[in-house]
Each structure stands twice: as structure tokens, then as C-alpha cells.
Specification:
By secondary structure, the chain is α/β, with parallel strands linked by helices. It has helices spanning about 5-20, 35-45, 75-80, 120-130, 155-160, 170-185, 190-200, 205-210, 215-220, 235-245; strands at about 50-55, 65-70, 85-90, 105-110, 135-140, 185-190, 230, 250-255, 265-270.
């Protein structure tokens, strides 16, 4: 098998199996009620049509007429709460949306700017979102933004065992952000995140006993095993720099009180009128 073919297969498998771990995910990987309410406020009360990138079920009813687009049929089949007269989901390509210009009052997504390679593919995605928004329409996205100065990996191990990290999913993002800040490169292979977590915590049972975290939550890290996916964790400043190329106004909204919420603001972008 050629390397490219093998990589394509592994990347596909990542999303084919991701839904199996969905019930174990907690904030920051999923939005809580406070974040959903912040989304509603940010998109505005007067919207009618909305585009949802991905099938985040917590956001499925945020607009009277919503279309969700996801490239993974297993995610649609297993995570989407079902089509109704107000909402529907289908497979599609975020980077080449099958909608005419100005089709939506708003677009939204939860963590979706983590998936395109920064900055090139992020630019492509933002340009495509701006195209399908009406003038003055808003794109609201919850970010996973790395801090300017992340803690060293060695401290993360101590922090976890002394109860300073809220849950295992927050730990994963702490590790990812520490790695990207140390390298100066916002893009990181998810398999490296897994390998680093397992290097820091080789005894999963000991980690579970010490923290009180469910072993099943810790085992969600294995969805990254063998994956060819690359995630991006830019800083807020890096998000601002790239967003201003396509949108008239850009600002952040702080939302939620869950573990790592301070690194997960809503990015609110408004299309030029």
C-alpha cells in the first residue's frame, strides 16, 4: 500500500470510530448549556437560516432553519439527533460548500477550526464560510486556542496527580497546547498527542485511581492511535490575524466555566455588508 493510501485510510478510520467515544466526551470537547446559550446570543435573535459545520447535537436547534454538513457518514448516522422540518444533516465538503453566495444568516461550529491545517486550509475554510453568508451575517465558532505561554509537559504530570486538571479531556488539550507552543508550530499530529499522553502516564489504572477519572474516559485517547489526522491549536492572536482577511469585524466572547474554558472562547466574525 502506498503511503498516501495508508494515510487516507487511517484518517478515515479516525472519524469512522470517533462516534463510538462520543458518549464519553465532556467539556471542553463538547459544549455545555452555558456555551450553547452564548452561541444563541452571539448569532443573534433575528436569524432564520443557519449552517452548522459538523453535527454537534447541542447546536442542532439553534435556528429555525438549519442545515448541518459533515464529511463523515458515521458521525451523521450516530451523533446527529435526527432530521426534522427545522433541521437536517447531510454529507458535504466544508471547503467547497454546495450553496449559492449569501445563502445563510449565520454559520456556526464547535471546535471546527481545529481541523484545517493552519494557516492555508484555515484561510480556505473562512473564505468559503464568508461566501455563503449574507452581508452582515455572522460565523460563530468555539475555539481551542493555545495560550501564548503553555505550561511545560513535566508540570502537567504533577498537575494531573494533584487534582489541578479538571478531567481527562482537558488534559489531552493541555498536552496538545504544550506541544505546539514548545515547537512554535500550531499544527500537530493527533497520534503525537496520544504518544505524549501515554509517555507521561504509562499506567492508566494509576491515573484513574489518583484522579478519579473513569478508565473509559482515559481510553478515549486510543481513537488517535494510528490516525493520520493533524489538528491545529493557534493562539488567539493567530486566529485574529487570519480572520481579519475575510471578515469585517472580529471579537471573542468568553463562555462556560468548565475545565479549560479560558482557552475555549467563541470567535465571532461578521461578514462585510
Amino acid at each position: 500500500m502506498r503511503a498516501k493510501d495508508k494515510g487516507d485510510r487511517m484518517a478515515l478510520d479516525h472519524w469512522q470510530s470517533y462516534h463510538e467515544k462520543w458518549s464519553r466526551l465532556r467539556p471542553p470537547l463538547r459544549p455545555d448549556a452555558d456555551v450553547v446559550e452564548a452561541f444563541r446570543t452571539a448569532v443573534g435573535a433575528g436569524i432564520h437560516t443557519a449552517l452548522l459545520l459538523g453535527v454537534t447535537p447541542e447546536l442542532a436547534d439553534i435556528a429555525p432553519d438549519l442545515i448541518a454538513i459533515d464529511s463523515s457518514q458515521p458521525m451523521i448516522d450516530h451523533i446527529w439527533p435526527g432530521n426534522t422540518a427545522r433541521r437536517r444533516a447531510r454529507r458535504g465538503d466544508w471547503y467547497a460548500l454546495d450553496f449559492v453566495d449569501g445563502s445563510f444568516d449565520a454559520a456556526l461550529g464547535d471546535g471546527v477550526l481545529t481541523f484545517p491545517h493552519y494557516p492555508d486550509r484555515t484561510r480556505v475554510l473562512l473564505r468559503e464560510i464568508r461566501r455563503v453568508l449574507r452581508p452582515g451575517g455572522r460565523f460563530v465558532c468555539r475555539l481551542f486556542a493555545a495560550p501564548e505561554d503553555a505550561e511545560p509537559l513535566e508540570r502537567l504530570r504533577d498537575d494531573a496527580f494533584r487534582g489541578a486538571i479538571g478531567n481527562f479531556h482537558a488534559l489531552k488539550w493541555h498536552v496538545a497546547m504544550a506541544l505546539v507552543r514548545a515547537s512554535g508550530e500550531p499544527n500537530i499530529a493527533v497520534e503525537r498527542i496520544r504518544d505524549t499522553v501515554m509517555h507521561l502516564f504509562p499506567d492508566r489504572d494509576a491515573l484513574a485511581r489518583s484522579t478519579g477519572w473513569a478508565r473509559a474516559d482515559i481510553d478515549t485517547i486510543d481513537v488517535y492511535d494510528g490516525s493520520a489526522e493533524v489538528y491545529a491549536f493557534p493562539t488567539r492572536a493567530q486566529y485574529l490575524a487570519i480572520s481579519r482577511d475575510e471578515f469585517a469585524t472580529v471579537h471573542f466572547i468568553e463562555a462556560g466555566r468548565y475545565p479549560l474554558a479560558e482557552r475555549c472562547p467563541l470567535l465571532v466574525l461578521e461578514a462585510r455588508r
